[in-house]
Amino acid sequence: MNAPTNISAQTQNRKADHIRICLEEDVQSDQITNGLERYRFTHSCLPELNHNDIDISTTFLGKHLSAPLLISSMTGGTEQAAIINQRLAQVAQHYKIAMGVGSQRVAVEKPQVADTFAVRKYAPDVLLFANLGAVQLNYKYGLDECLRVVDILEADALILHINPLQECIQSKGDTNFRGLLDKISKICSKLPVPVIAKEVGNGISAAIANKLIAAGVAAIDVAGAGGTSWAKVESERAENPLQRRLGKTFADWGLPTAECITTIRAIAPDVPLIASGGLRHGLDVTAAIALGADIAGLAMPFLQAAATSETAVSELAEVLIAEITTVLFCTGNATLYQLKHSSSLQRIE
Fold first, then answer.
1. CA–CA separation, 345 vs 289, rounded Å?
2. CA-to-CA dists, residue 148 to 9, 85, 109, 292, angstroms
3. What HEC string does 80-116 produce?
């Protein structure tokens, strides 16, 4: 009788650990980068534009965004997480940008913490993404649980995050990924909102993206390597030397974000594509979009700001928007569409 309570307590504690470790420890990739440093924008000293006329708005999954930004999935399930999510949601609403929440597994196991995810009341007009680990479909989760987390958030889409490396290193991780693609396909066919497939920092290859799209996934979030290393995060939580060693060995494992974008776009020119993984400022965002992404997600910068105050989150959003606008202005592009179809971004040989 106590098993579900014990499991939910473990999940809740893990969420608290993740916030603390990400904020207090060095868990960034050391030897692998997001790959965007291999590209450079061509500066236009005569843009022939009025800066006030630049439009960085876009549409993603049918919803208008004032800027091509996603507050990437981070947290939920604890008192601190509730405060963080409220701050993020209020800023997302103000700036009309997208937002995802962290894995809602803890809300399924422990319904009384569901309100820590329920940010729709703070963000009535925002593109919101619910979130579950895809591997849970092999651990007795199904359509009902997917519907539940979508309902908690009143979400516009469901992220199914795919994290085999993290599960390998995590204490008591869920590592049965056999037959998962078929189960993802069934969810895609039955869920009334779109499904987004997302990695958690090790990237999605073109070959896997192709399989996911064929299975019915509506969008891909590449979540490439080069930012927060969840192998490092789980190493900090390790309960034994083996887990700690695994986390350190695989700290820089994965596909750089830039590589994920270009290779997926080459085989799937029309799939809605989110760039995330090691993006730290608006220059990264616009480079990712110029490479072929539609919007760009940032997690760590928003987490750090949200742990401070709502004002800090607003200031970060202002800076990102200013940086994106400056790139467009200084490359002579009035819109994101023009940027994506220009030759403004060049690979440095």
1. 10
2. 20, 19, 11, 33
3. HHHHHHHHHHHHHHHHCCEEECCCCHHHHHCHHHHHH
Residue 169 and residue 247 in contact, taking contact as beta carbons nearer than 8 Å? yes
- SS3 at position 220: strand
- C-alpha–C-alpha distance, residues 132 and 109, integer Å: 12
Total length of the chain: 349
In contact, 69 and 98? CB cutoff 8 Å: yes
Per DSSP, what are the bridge partners of residue 28? Answer: 228
197: amino acid identity, one letter: A
Nearest by Cα to 233 from 173, 152, 306: 173
> Which among 69, 49, 65, 45 is positioned nearest to 57, based on CA atoms?
65
What is residue 225's three-state secondary structure? strand
In this structure, what token pair is assigned to residue 291? Answer: 């490479």
pLDDT for residue 16: 76
CA neighbours closer than 13 Å in the CB half-sphere of residue 9: 5
> What does DSSP say about strands 58-60 and 98-100: parallel, antiparallel, or unpaired?
unpaired
Find the largest Cα–Cα distance for the chain.
71
Give CA 146 to chain center in angstroms: 18
Write the burial class of residue 189 (CB in 10 Å: 0-12 exposed, 13-18 middle, 19+ buried): exposed
CA distance 39 to 247: 30
Question: In this predicted model, what pLDDT tens digit does every residue of 302-328 receive, in sequence order?
Answer: 999 999 999 999 999 999 999 999 999
pLDDT tens-digit map of 85-101: 999 999 999 999 999 99
Question: Rounded distance, CA 223 to CA 163, Å?
Answer: 10
Q: Which amino acid is at 20?
A: R
- Terminal Cα distance for the chain, rounded: 62
